[in-house]
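Exercise: predict the fold of this chain.
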Amino acid sequence: MTNWVFLRGLGREHRHWQQFINKFKTDKCVGLDLPGTGEHLNADTPWTISKNVEFAQSKTQDLKGPINLVAISFGAMVALGWASLDSRINKVFLINSSSSLSPFYERLKPENYKALLQGLLFKSLPQREEMILNMVSNLNPVPDETLQDWISIQETATVPIVSLIKQLVAASRFQPPPKLSCDGLILSSKNDRFVDCKCSERLAEYLAWPLHSHPSAGHDLPLDDPAWLINRIKNSQ
């Protein structure tokens, strides 16, 4: 049996997958929270991707058999680092990620800088979550149910600003591994308003992995078009 491990992005946790993992309907699925988020909110957030990888490995020691990783954004960086070290990793699916192959202004589009800073420092939690959701989703309108879910998640497990800063620093330092023995697939959103889709294109070229691009979805591709994403993943098996 293949284990499927799902990793979320910056300051997000397994509950942000919402119904995506349930819709996946295959083998054993695990939504793994990284240190400083969700179930591991009280764990110290590392300053490096490598320490996040060590944490992920320690939390999946009991998984028997091969592992497929489905990861978005910051989580995809952890997935790549993990795949370079762990022989259990069979295949990696990277969604709207980035790396040192791209300049900083593509890894986080400049039009988001001011809003993010204001949101972190001055906005209430509900206002901040609405701002983030509108940045990463191209659904119009964004379902109010989704917004309320995101607000509830943060109210029950608020990620400290210092943890977000540490993740940002770790992301800024991330360099993709030189060689991977496993296979992979890059999935991106052409209309991503948060991270430039060129970042995924460069990763695909560097890793010599196929690239599938969604024509209209935003950064949170699992939210905007889960059916498209699941179809691409399953058809690559």
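Check your answer against the key: Residues 3-235 form a domain with the Rossmann fold fold (CATH 3.40.50.1820).
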